[in-house]
Amino acid sequence: MTPQTDTSAPAPADPPLLQMRGIVKRFPGTLACDRAELSVRAGEVHCLLGENGAGKSTLMKILAGSYQPDGGEMLLDGRPLRPASPSAGLAAGISVIYQELDLLPDLTVAQNLFLGGDAPGRKRSERPLKSFGFALRKRRRLTAATEVLRRLGADFPASAVVRELPIAAQQLTAIARALTGEARVIVMDEPSATLGAADLASVFEVIRSLTARGCAVIYISHRLDEVMEIGDRATVLRDGRTAGVFELAETTQEQLVAAMIGESRELVNRTERPRPEGAPLLEVDRAHIPGVLDVSGIEVRPGEIVGLAGLGGAGRTTLLRALFGDGRAAVTARLDGRPLRTGDPRAAARAGLALVPESRKEQGLLLGLSVARNAAVASLGRPPWLRPHRLAARLTRPVLADLGVRHASAGQPVGQLSGGNQQKVVLAKWITRGTTRVLLLDEPSRGLDIGAKADLYRQVRRLADDGVAVLLASSELTELTANADTIWVLHEGRNIARYDPRTTPEHVIAHAVITGASTGATP
Q1: For the chain, how many structural domains are there in total?
Q2: What is the average pLDDT across 322-326?
Q3: With CB atoms counted within 10 Å of each terminal CB, which end of the chain scores lower, N or C?
Q4: Is residue 49 part of a domain?
């Protein structure tokens, strides 16, 4: 596929501030960036667009120094740029504000802004802490931090502890931290995900002041109305490649959507299964977190696979966590016609709910323990390290064999397995328990190669064929259309449309995912 670039606007006289040419990045089983291109001018807001998995985050992590490219080159002001680490990227003038904030929660706002020292205006790497004159530097740091917050229009003090601030204030703190350095290129990854309208307006004012001083801002967002308001140009990535570069003043949202999803998508090959019938097993009347989640009317029948589609921050993970026991959420739901007790993961597990979380390493596994102990953790009545290993091995042996988990022995640490085999172990712990009635899957194939994905979904379909109700959240729309019986689209915390993937083209569902419009939805 050859990128199609809008060349209607005249070329700028000055060379770009930042150029990324032919960037290639491979992961096992995945080509995340396939000769991707990005060119950003000084003093512009350049929006980076694309569906989940298009390569946006990978490209920005290469720019920041978190990943090393397998091919291509980068130039900053015409000079070669290849930071070996995030700190090297920061020293070169690249500042990235990630959606997953990397603040230190037990420090104050001012301490986070000038971490490593407190001489405002100097690079963070050049700010060593010293004991002499500490009180004076602390006052200077607080004064400088207060001024940065004032520019942002923040209404919280620089002396506040980050942990005690609401999420929106923490996001503003992360943005403020980028302003304290000498960044020439500032990357903002979904900055509006946690901001209200007033906070976002303040951020836009700061962005405009930054570009007026010659900084370049790379703005990543799925919200096209924001893109059209704040952006000068946009680069669209699709399948790891640059699909187009657009002058936003001359471009419509529909043109951007077409570039993001492609104009020649074909229906995926489905694995056909009999349509589940009968009364719902799980009924979600409402799951609500003020300002974050408001989902209602989702039903899952025994043997049914219901997909949850949506962009990052749409609410899929939040919904699954709410059903499994996130105490922040107010949930009204029924299991087999009876009220489901919520807010307690242990109660949810006893009722027959099982959650395979998005992060298997951080939330799904105990990496230092054996394969057998991890697979038996939901079945043993006490911590797995307090039960005999032979018991765990005996309980899990048939399940691990049935799932095809490749491991040297039951005693091998699970952290030594491949990503695909680790994911199978997470699934094995619920199968071993033997009481699962509703399986909640959150991005189950993330990081898996094609073969491992196929193995995983075969097991999910087998569980569904045995009567388990499955609620499946995935950023890979192709996987949902291939495996789900019904697909709900979530957009900005709400379920806005339901589709039958047997009869609905994938590009129609993708359009709803990106825009929030429910054209062609199932009644």
Answers
A1: 3
A2: 90
A3: C
A4: yes
